[in-house]
C-alpha cells in the first residue's frame, strides 16, 4: 500500500501541466520555500517523535515521508496560490478547510494503513501549525509581487 501512496504522490505532479506557465514561474519561490520548511519540520518532528512512520526500516521511512513532503504538499501549495493569491479571505478559507481535511480525513486513513502515526502531535496541532505556516508563506509571496485582481 505504501507504494501506491508514493506512486500517487508522483503522479499528482502531472496536474502541474494544467497550471499556466506564468503562474508556475510566479509561485515557484513560495513552493520551494514550502517544500524546504516542510522537509525541515518533518525531520525535526520525526527526530522528536511527534509522529512515527510505521512501515519498514529507516531508509523506507525516509522515502515514505519524502513522498508526502515532496509530492502532495508543494503541489498543493502551488495550486492554492495559483487559485487564491490576491484574495486573502478565500486563501484563508481554502487553507483552513484543506488542513481540516488533511488532519481529520487523510491522517486517520494513513494511520489505518500503518503509514504514519501521530504520537506527540494531535490533529488540532496539525491544523494550527499548518495555518500559521500558510500565513508565513502568504506573507513571503507578498514580497515577490502584489496581488492582482482576477
From TrEMBL:
<feature type="transmembrane region" description="Helical">
    <location>
        <begin position="62"/>
        <end position="82"/>
    </location>
</feature>
<protein>
    <submittedName>
        <fullName>Uncharacterized protein</fullName>
    </submittedName>
</protein>
<feature type="transmembrane region" description="Helical">
    <location>
        <begin position="122"/>
        <end position="140"/>
    </location>
</feature>
<keyword id="KW-0472">Membrane</keyword>
<feature type="transmembrane region" description="Helical">
    <location>
        <begin position="28"/>
        <end position="50"/>
    </location>
</feature>
<keyword id="KW-1133">Transmembrane helix</keyword>
<feature type="transmembrane region" description="Helical">
    <location>
        <begin position="88"/>
        <end position="110"/>
    </location>
</feature>
<keyword id="KW-0812">Transmembrane</keyword>
Amino acid at each position: 500500500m505504501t507504494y501506491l501512496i508514493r506512486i500517487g504522490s508522483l503522479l499528482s505532479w502531472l496536474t502541474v501541466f494544467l497550471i499556466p506557465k506564468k503562474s508556475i514561474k510566479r509561485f515557484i519561490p513560495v513552493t520551494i520555500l514550502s517544500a524546504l520548511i516542510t522537509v525541515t519540520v518533518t525531520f525535526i518532528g520525526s527526530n522528536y517523535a511527534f509522529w512515527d512512520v510505521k512501515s519498514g526500516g529507516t531508509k523506507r521511512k525516509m522515502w515514505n515521508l519524502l513522498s508526502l513532503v515532496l509530492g502532495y504538499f508543494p503541489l498543493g501549495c502551488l495550486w492554492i496560490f495559483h487559485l487564491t493569491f490576491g484574495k486573502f479571505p478565500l486563501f484563508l478559507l481554502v487553507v483552513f478547510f484543506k488542513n481540516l481535511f488533511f488532519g481529520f480525513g487523510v491522517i486517520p486513513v494513513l494511520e489505518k494503513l500503518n503509514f504514519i502515526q501521530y504520537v506527540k502531535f494531535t490533529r488540532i496541532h496539525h491544523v494550527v501549525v499548518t495555518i500559521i505556516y500558510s500565513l508565513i508563506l502568504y506573507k513571503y509571496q507578498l514580497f515577490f509581487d502584489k496581488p492582482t485582481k482576477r
